[in-house]
Task: inverse folding
C-alpha cells in the first residue's frame, strides 16, 4: 500500500491559470477537461502544468483511459467510498437554518448544483494525482488490459464562478485563512472558493466541517479514502504502457525530480481529504 504522505516542507506551487495557457499547453488543458468530463482545470493539474514536459507525458498516458468504463467506474466507486466515510462524521443538516436566514429553494438548489460539480469532478483528479505519484516513485503499472470503449457522458456544466482570495472581504478571507490553517494547506482549493459565492452559507458549512475535521474519526475516514484511491489507481488498465522511467525523465527535463515529486505528493496527500470534505458538505444539504 502506498502510504499517505504529506511532504515536509510543503513545496511552493505555481499553478498555470487557464487564461495563460497557450499553444500545446492549451491543447492539453482542453483535452484534460474533455477527457475527464470536467468544466474546470483543477489546481492540481494547473500546478502539474508548471512542469510542461511532465504534464504532457502524464496526460498522454491518462488520455487513453479517461472516459472509458474502467475509469468511470473507478470514479463512481471512489465517490461512494468518500461519501460513506463523510456520512460517518455526522454532518449537521443546514437547510432549515439557511431557510431561516432567507435562502430560497432555488438558491439552495444552486448550491447543491455547485457542490455536485465537485462531487463528481474531483474523482478523476484524485486518480490523476495518485497515478502520477505511483509512477514517479517507480511503481510499474504494467501494460494491463485494454481500456475498452469510451462511455458517453452528459455535457458538463458551466465552469463555476470563483471567489478569489483578492475578491474576498475580511470575513470571508478570515474563513479562507482558517481553512488553510485547519487543513494544513498552502492554498484554498477551487471547491471552497466556489462555495464562498454564498458567504453566509459557506461560513455555516465550514464551521460544521471544521468540527468534524478536528474531531475523532476524521483521519481514519481520509485514510480509508486514500487507500481506496490507491487500490483503484493500481487496478486501472494502462494501454499506453508508460514505464515509470518515461515519466521520471519527462519530469527531470523540467526541474529536479525531488521538486516535481514533492508537488505531486502534496496533491496526492490533500485530495482524499478534499473529496471527503465535499461529501460532508453535500450531506449537509441533503435533507433541506
Result:
Amino acid at each position: 500500500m502506498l502510504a499517505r504522505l504529506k511532504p515536509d516542507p510543503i513545496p511552493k506551487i505555481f499553478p498555470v491559470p487557464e487564461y495563460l495557457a497557450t499553444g500545446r499547453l492549451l491543447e492539453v488543458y482542453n483535452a484534460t477537461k474533455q477527457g475527464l468530463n470536467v468544466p474546470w482545470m483543477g489546481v492540481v493539474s494547473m500546478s502539474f502544468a508548471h512542469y510542461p514536459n511532465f504534464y504532457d507525458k502524464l496526460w498522454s498516458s491518462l488520455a487513453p483511459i479517461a472516459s472509458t468504463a474502467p475509469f468511470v467506474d473507478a470514479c463512481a466507486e471512489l465517490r461512494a467510498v468518500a461519501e460513506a466515510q463523510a456520512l460517518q462524521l455526522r454532518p449537521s443538516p443546514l437547510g432549515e437554518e439557511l431557510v431561516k436566514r432567507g435562502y430560497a429553494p432555488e438558491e439552495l438548489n444552486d448550491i447543491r448544483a455547485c457542490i455536485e460539480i465537485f462531487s463528481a469532478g474531483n474523482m478523476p483528479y484524485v486518480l490523476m494525482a495518485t497515478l502520477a505519484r505511483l509512477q514517479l516513485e517507480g511503481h510499474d503499472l504494467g501494460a494491463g488490459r485494454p481500456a475498452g470503449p469510451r462511455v458517453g457522458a452528459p455535457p458538463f456544466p458551466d465552469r463555476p464562478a470563483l471567489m478569489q482570495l483578492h475578491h474576498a472581504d475580511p470575513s470571508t478571507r478570515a474563513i479562507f485563512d482558517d481553512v488553510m490553517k485547519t487543513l494544513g494547506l498552502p492554498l484554498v482549493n477551487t471547491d471552497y472558493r466556489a462555495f464562498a459565492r454564498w458567504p453566509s452559507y459557506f461560513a455555516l458549512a465550514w464551521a460544521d466541517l471544521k468540527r468534524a475535521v478536528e474531531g475523532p474519526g476524521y483521519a481514519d475516514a481520509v485514510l480509508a479514502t486514500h487507500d481506496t484511491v490507491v487500490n483503484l489507481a493500481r487496478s486501472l488498465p494502462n494501454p499506453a504502457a508508460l514505464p515509470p522511467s518515461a515519466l521520471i525523465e519527462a519530469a527531470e527535463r523540467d526541474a529536479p525530480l525531488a521538486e516535481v515529486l514533492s508537488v505531486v505528493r502534496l496533491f496526492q496527500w490533500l485530495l482524499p481529504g478534499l473529496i471527503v470534505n465535499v461529501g460532508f458538505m453535500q450531506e449537509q444539504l441533503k435533507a433541506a
Q: What stands out?
A: The chain has one domain: 18-284. The radius of gyration is 19 Å. The mean pLDDT is 92. Residues 105-136 form the longest helix (32 residues).
